[in-house]
Design brief:
single chain, mainly alpha, elongated
């Protein structure tokens, strides 16, 4: 009974996405910072995408019913 495999419903998929999304964001943020550190560039042309994704995640946390 413990190791049965059953398909996830929509609510369970949303929980999976809610848990995994910050891990993906953190990884992409670290890669972005490392790329700019290794390149030595002071230009942060893509920083608005990183900030936008973190803002979207914060909005999902604040306003999601699940």
């Amino acid at each position: 009974m413990v190791f049965q495999i059953t398909p996830l419903n929509v609510a369970e998929w949303l929980v999976v996405l809610k848990i995994s999304f910050p891990v993906i964001l953190l990884d992409e943020t670290l890669k972005f910072g490392a790329r700019h550190l290794v390149d030595g560039s002071r230009s942060f042309r893509g920083v608005q995408w990183v900030v936008g994704m973190w803002a979207a995640y914060a909005a999902i946390l604040l306003y999601s019913p699940w």
